[in-house]
Amino acid sequence: MSTRFSAALVAAAVAVGLVMAAATPASAQFKMPRPSQKASVMQTVGLTDITVTYSRPGVKGRVVWGGLVPYGEPWRTGANEATTFTCSNDITVEGQKLAAGTYSFFTIPGPDEWTVVFNGEKDLWGAYAYKPDKDVLRVKVKPQASAAFEEWMQFRFADLSWTGATLLLQWEKLNVPVRIGVSDVERTMAAVRDSVAHAKPDNWQWPYRGASFCLDAGANLDEGLKWAEKSVAVKEGYANVGLLARYRAQAGNYKDAIALGEKSVQMGKAQKEPADTKPIERFLEDWRKK
Predict the structure, then answer these.
(1) Sign of CA dihedral 47, 163, 138, 105
(2) CB-based contacts of 13: which residues, under 8 Å, 6+ apart?
(3) Whole-angstrom Cα distance, residue 115 to residue 130?
(4) CATH number at residue 237
(5) Could you tell me which of 22, 207, 253, 258 has the fewest CB atoms within 10 Å of its CB?
(6) Interior angle at CA 52, CA 32 and CA 93, nearest 5
(7) Strand partners, 165
(8) Cβ atoms of residues 59 and 145 within 8 Å
């Protein structure tokens, strides 16, 4: 082999090596879509933010329950990384306390009963490294058959109120409900009581706001009524007179409710900048039918 030919071979080999070396980082950085796409659902319940982050597997013609997802074994409740559950305040799950924080969310499915698990370890891949001794809370729930078919597994929130919600796992023809409770009404009531107690004698707004909160939340209505009456006694206005009318109607006293409602409408229209009286007028239409 000639010296010139050997040098050419060496040069060619070096060139190939440089091309491969240059290509390696690009290959390492190449990303492909996952078959089970990542998703996240967040719901504010009262004053508490609840977030579930997970990956959504598809049925794809497979037997899911008791097949793809075995009974009696911990499941990541999704695909890829273990599902995570975050709550910004302390909550209850099926009546049991769970502190604010982020948890891995596992389930142990069964034909008639599921175990829902909140685990203290995070950033887990699947259930392979799941450690039962790190469980923070376990609750039992009942799965429900669904007439609607769900190809892609999903979480959603239902039955929303200021005191709680239902977290629903839906996949194939199955719904798994997990009841969540919050105590934000009690926390808010404590703050409102403090504000009303320290309000100046001529302050009608804080009793009005407290009464509005109680009526909207459907809680502490006797206390709310006293605040509504106090607000009107300090200074009558379109807003607080209309609110007191709603309290009278809530108690079934439609005669007084109508009288106060009509007064509220008149006051609202007589303001320098007329108020939108349509909401209380709609209430009046309903009360007159009672």
Answers:
(1) negative
(2) none
(3) 15
(4) 1.25.40.10
(5) 22
(6) 155
(7) 180
(8) no
Tokens found for residue 116: 């829902």
Contact (CB, 8 A) for 34 and 55:
yes
pTM of the model: 0.75
C-alpha 277, offset from chain centre: 33
| Same domain assignment for residues 141 and 49 | yes
Alpha carbons 112 and 114: distance in angstroms, whole number:
7
Q: Looking at the structure, tell me whether residues 263 and 171 fall in a common domain.
A: no
Is-contact 195 218, C-beta < 8 A? no
255, 258, 261, 262: CA torsion to nearest 10: -120
Q: Are residues 41 and 176 in the same domain?
A: yes
**Res. 14 pLDDT band, cuts 50 70 90:** very low
Tokens of 248: 């009278």
More confident residue, 18 or 148: 148
Shared-domain flag, residues 161 and 278: no
Task: Give 179's contacts (C-beta < 8 A, 6+ positions apart).
Answer: 93, 94, 95, 164, 166, 167
Among candidate residues 242, 230, 232, the one with its CA nearest the CA of residue 275: 242
Say if 219 falls within a structural domain: yes
Which stretches does DSSP call E strand in the chain?
A: 37-45, 48-56, 84-87, 91-93, 96-98, 101-108, 114-119, 135-141, 144-158, 164-182
* Distance, CA of 98 to CA of 254 (rounded, Å): 43
Q: Give the CA angle between residues 128, 39, 69 to the nearest 5°.
A: 40
Structural domain of 195: 184-288
For residues 247 and 222, what is the distance between their CA atoms, to the nearest angstrom?
Answer: 9
Q: How many domains does the chain have?
A: 2
